[in-house]
Write a structure and sequence with these properties.
Chain A: Immunoglobulins are composed of two identical heavy chains and two identical light chains; disulfide-linked. Chain A: InterPro entries: Ig-like_dom, Ig-like_dom_sf, Ig-like_fold, Ig_sub, Ig_V-set, IgV_Light_Chain. Chain A: Its main location: membrane. Chain A: It holds the Pfam family V-set. The structure holds two protein chains of two kinds. By secondary structure, chain A is an all-beta fold. Chain A has one domain: Immunoglobulin-like (Sandwich). Chain A has no helices and nine strands. In chain A, the strands form two sheets. In chain A, strands 1, 3, 4, 7, 8 and 9 form a six-stranded mixed sheet that branches. A three-stranded antiparallel sheet of chain A has the order 2-6-5, with no helix packed on it. Chain A starts with 8 loop residues before the first strand and ends with a strand. Helix content of chain B is about 0%, strand content about 50%. Chain B is an all-beta fold. The chains are: A mainly beta, B mainly beta. The interface between A and B is medium-sized, with 26 and 21 residues.
Chain lengths: ~110, ~120
């Protein structure tokens, strides 16, 4: 299985919205609604931000939202804040009953 | 409150076998639907899923590493053990264990850095 494809970096100014894409295949992203998104600050463990494409765990800001179209999932962060600057990873369940992560996207808040 | 903590050697030599233990609390690995997985992250690089064990002892492995990995559980001790054989410097990474239930990897350990060097 190949890693899911994410842009290496995205940036935005405070208050703006940004979207991070995550492209897979029909054997992973496109085939299941088990796409998750994780936020990772330097030196910290990843934190689950979105699960099952668009669900937010308790305690996660509603500024974070997820969606999916075909083989591409997306994470949108609205009202960017300085604390959102981090690495973001997508993950998907696969047809082999395994899991796969994306290559990660570095978000810079300008 | 769910917590997980990884433990094991910080330094291993090439060709050696790595054994990592995930000790958890706040849930039971005998509860239907629960799983514990291992994910690693080389310095400055992306997350890589390695393996997962479910409450019913179903085990899943990364296809690219399957021949080198073994995951087991000890429900009575609340532990999951991952072994990786034939370690190489490219396996240098922070290794995380994480909980899975209604959503995947909703709780993570702090991670443990393993360096492979002679």
């Amino acid at each position: 299985q190949s890693a899911l494809t994410q842009p290496a970096s995205v940036s935005g100014s405070p208050g703006q919205s940004i979207t991070i894409s995550c492209t897979g295949t029909s054997s992973d992203v496109g085939g299941y609604n088990y796409v998750s998104w994780y936020q990772q600050h330097p030196g910290k463990a990843p934190k689950l931000m979105i699960y099952e494409v668009s669900n937010r765990p308790s305690g996660v800001s509603n500024r974070f939202s997820g969606s999916k179209s075909g083989n591409t999932a997306s994470l949108t962060i609205s009202g960017l804040q300085a604390e959102d600057e981090a690495d973001y990873y997508c993950s998907s369940y696969t047809s082999s009953s395994t899991w796969v992560f994306g290559g990660g996207t570095k978000l810079t808040v300008l | 409150q769910i917590t997980l903590k990884e433990s094991g050697p910080t330094l291993v030599k090439p060709t050696q076998t790595l054994t990592l233990t995930c000790t958890f609390s706040g849930f039971s690995l005998s509860t239907s639907g629960v799983g514990v997985g291992w994910i690693r992250q080389p310095p400055g690089k992306a997350l890589e899923w390695l393996a997962l064990i479910y409450w019913n002892d179903d085990k899943r492995y990364s296809p690219s590493l399957k021949s080198r990995l073994t995951i087991t559980k000890d429900t009575s001790k609340n532990q999951v053990v991952l072994t990786m054989t034939n370690m190489d410097p490219v396996d240098t990474a922070t290794y995380y264990c994480a909980h899975l239930y209604s959503s995947p990897f909703d709780y993570w350990g702090q991670g443990t850095l393993v360096t492979v060097s002679s």
